[in-house]
Design a protein that fits this description.
This protein has nine helices and six strands, in the order βαααααβαβαβαββα. The chain folds into two domains: about 140 residues, HAD superfamily/HAD-like (Rossmann fold); about 60 residues. β4, α8 and β5 form a beta-alpha-beta unit. α1 crosses α4.
Length: about 210
């Protein structure tokens, strides 16, 4: 199939941020007086902030204040000056530019957080089209962020190729009608939602015919 655009998830897919975010979350919650282990925070990967807050509050047994958690978690994340890029990310973006294939990001991160991480990574200035869950009615696993990113890129959803790392994100892209490649990060796929599961971004790009 000839694709008209490529849409990427951000955390755990283009940026190697999931481990850093989980460590920061454990620290932030401890500072707020709550002992939450990394395994539970890992189970929240892919969900938007609002859904994650509901699940986290239920796990702890008390309602968490969103603004307080934001501040503490962001402060812990900001201690990392450089945000690492996942293997193959720069190579793949370079290839898409050679092919003149438009690309963008559809993320369940907050807008400011997504831009902050990009600005502290080797991808600074490379992503000009980004949709966060704050820009749409519903975050992943709803398809809204993918549909909006496709709209911004001028691409019919069925002509878009989506790269995701999580089951939640893969379900969102599949619901949007896109071809989905899942490149697992911390969590192994649990179902048959993606069209293809790849070991890394480059392997996924080869499967899709973007790289020979």
């Amino acid at each position: 199939m000839q694709f008209s655009a490529v849409i990427f998830d951000l955390d755990g897919l283009l940026l190697d941020t999931e481990r850093v975010a989980i460590d920061a979350g454990v620290l932030a919650l401890a500072q707020m007086g709550h002992a939450v282990g990394p395994d539970f925070l890992t189970s929240l990967i892919g969900f938007d902030h609002d859904e994650g807050l509901v699940r986290l509050s239920r796990h702890i047994g008390v309602p968490l204040d969103s603004a307080t958690l934001h501040h503490a978690w962001d402060a812990a994340m900001e201690e990392h000056d450089d945000v690492p890029v996942k293997p193959g990310a720069l190579q793949l973006l370079d290839r898409l530019q050679v092919l003149r294939l438009p690309f963008g990001v559809a993320t369940n991160s907050r807008r400011a957080s997504a831009h902050s991480k990009l600005d502290r990574s080797a991808l600074v200035g490379r992503i000009t089209t980004l949709t966060s869950y704050e820009d749409v009615a519903r975050g992943k696993p709803a398809p809204d962020v993918y549909l909006e990113t496709a709209r911004k890129l001028g691409c019919p959803p069925e002509r878009a190729l989506a790269f995701e790392d999580s089951d939640v994100g893969a379900a969102a892209a599949r619901a949007a009608g896109m071809t989905v490649i899942q490149v697992p990060d911390l969590l192994a796929p649990t179902g048959d939602v993606p069209h293809h599961v790849a070991d890394d971004l480059i392997a996924g790009a080869i499967w899709a015919g973007l790289i020979d």
